[in-house]
Amino acid sequence: MSGESLTIGLILSTEGKLRLKFSKTKKNLVKSILPAAVSIIDFLEKEIQHKANEQQKFLTQNKDSLFELPTLFSADYFSYLSKYSNGLLKFSEPSIIGDIIDEEKFEQLFRLFVYDDQNNSEKTLLKNKSIEKAFYQKVETNLIARVKDKVHTNQSLDNHIVPTLFNPFQIDCLGLNGILIGAKSLPFTQSKETLHKNINTYVSVIAHLSSAHNRSLAENKFYLIADQPNKHTPAYKLWKQLFNNEELIKVISADDSGQVADLIEEKKAEKFIL
Predict the structure, then answer these.
(1) pLDDT recorded at residue 67
(2) Sign for the pseudo-dihedral over CA of 158, 159, 164, 168
(3) For the chain, does the N or the C end have fewer beta carbons within 10 angstroms?
(4) 107 CB-side CA count, 13 A
(5) What is the pLDDT of residues 237-273, one digit of tens each?
(6) What are the residues whose beta carbons fall under 8 Å from the beta carbon of 96, sequence distance 6 or more?
(7) Which of 12, 76, 23 is nearest to 45 (CA)?
(8) Alpha helices for 85-189 (secondary structure H)
(9) What is the rounded CA–CA span in Å between residue 188 and residue 166?
(10) Collapsing DSSP states into helix, strand and coil, what is residue 85?
(11) How far is 236 from 22, CA to CA, in rounded Å?
(12) What's the burial of 119, exposed, middle or buried (CB within 10 Å: 0-12/13-18/19+)?
């Protein structure tokens, strides 16, 4: 996503008052795309909030001063940050607002520039978590519990096993006996970016394992366990494309994940990773 950005917060500095707000919803979205980035953003948010609290305390204590008070959050400072910050967190060029901003107007600005439909987002998040919990439970019952003593289950693959991996990749089951048999569960309640990342990595893992063990891609049996998403969601188009193309990966539902266990038992597949 080179060149793209996501607005996660708003800072407003007025005479004698400093307002700062971050979007919990947007941070959750960042977490779904770049999990490792969340701890960095949390740290930066705390640092900014700490400085903002210090600044607000200073302004309050010296509100009757006859002299102009220095501020850490000046327009010049943020203009500098907007030009030279090139890391994970960036700042936009500051804008002057010709109005007196109270709490209500600040919230309006926040909704306009950041947008944080937190109530609906939290409901969706809770609903998705419930769907995912039921999904994984089906996979555990129908597949994992049946083959955990026969093949690798809930196996974490790293770059010692697949050199092209930058981060560990979790696969639900993996076995070998004549052909490679494997399955990866992936709930399509996740973001499109997360889905694409997992699918691309899965394909890369399949290609490497097939080559490393001299097995034909056409003969191996790899599955993507993914329930059909709502037809009106962005994820449906991706799911449909995968479902209609079974050359490398066969898409099955969590209810049907027992098919993988049947094949593992039929082929007498075994563990092979040392």
Answers:
(1) 64
(2) positive
(3) C
(4) 3
(5) 999 999 999 889 999 999 999 999 999 999 999 999 9
(6) 75
(7) 23
(8) 103-113, 118-139, 145-147
(9) 23
(10) coil
(11) 31
(12) exposed
Low-confidence ranges of the chain (pLDDT < 70): 1-5, 15-16, 33, 59, 63-73, 85-88, 116-123
Tokens found for residue 126: 């809770």
37-61 vs 24-33: helix crossing angle, rounded to 10: 150
The pLDDT value recorded for residue 247 is: 87
Contacts of 58 (CB under 8 A, 6+ apart): 69
- What is the C-alpha to C-alpha distance for residues 156 and 273, in angstroms, rounded to an integer? 11
Q: Where are the domains of the chain?
A: 9-116, 128-267
Strand bridging mode 152-157 / 221-225 = unpaired
The Cα 6–Cα 33 span in angstroms is: 11
CB 139 within 8 A of CB 153: no
Nearest to 48 by CA among 70, 73, 81, 79: 73
Q: What is the pLDDT of residue 64?
A: 64
CB 93 within 8 A of CB 81: no
